[in-house]
Amino acid sequence: MKVFYSLSPQLKKFSKNSVLALGIFDGLHLGHQKILETTVNDARKTGGQAGVMSFSPHPDKFFNKQPLRLIQTIEQRLEGFKKLGLDYSLILDLGRGLASLKGEDFVRKILKEGLNISEVVVGSNFRFGHHRSCGVKELISFGRQFDFKVKILKPVKKKGHLISSSLIRKCLEKGQVDQARVYLGRPYEIQGRVIKGQRLGGELGFPTANLLTENEILPRGVFISLALFEDRLLPAVSNIGWRPTLASREFSVEVHLLGQKINLYRKRLSLFLLKKLRAEKKFPSINKLKEQIATDVNQTSYYFQRLKAVPSDLLDFLPDLVEYKFFKPGRSEKTNGNQS
Description:
By secondary structure, the protein is of the alpha/beta class. Helix content is about 30%, strand content about 25%.
């Protein structure tokens, strides 16, 4: 997938007669996936390219100055676009005059003159133009004016709820990763780099890797997780929060790998939160904390022993590698070094 950050002659040549999805697509939830899959399918039918246009920063941050926390980093969003089969992505900066364009000017200058697309695909709540003054009704009208098709898709409903990024943010902020997983169509992912910690986990008998993450939403609690390191999927139990029993002043993301001894320091790691075990809790003593961690590890081990393969909803969104080595608890590798 080619990635562009501005209009250019190269992009116009590449995108001519393409089918283009428009939106923010934060989270790439099931509704977003429907839009992007429709875009790819329509492009394949006509022999054109399938593209997606997104924007940065998020319009709510730009126009309303809201302290909005996003579900994904821009890198995660681009990874998802590639996985869904898009041929090109265009990420436009709202701060470079784009936000001041009226609806008609946006369509004429960007969609027609800048890209020369043949069809756009959007959700029914799509807004564009200065202060987001135009909606799908205006887009359909401009499509007739500038000779391109417009396809409007209805929101996807799951368990009685219309799926939206705002709904998923609320779930994650409450620590409801199980519910967020239903709407996302896959487990929530946190990416980052392993840094040196205080080695408190090792002193308790459960060494952890401490993750410095770029993600803005960090659900608090203890979670059954899968850690992706290079080509290995490793069962893990993770703790996200303040570690109240240890009187920590730092919010942390700690990952304990089950049955593995691997030096992860300075390595990139993806952490998938599969299921919440419990909320963070302040224990009356270190021994009580150790007992609870042992229980968390046992519950996580039992979960993975019953799991016959990588969850299908996760497998569809893993990066394209030759092979994934999925290690269940008890199947340890001989590697040098320890978790931080």
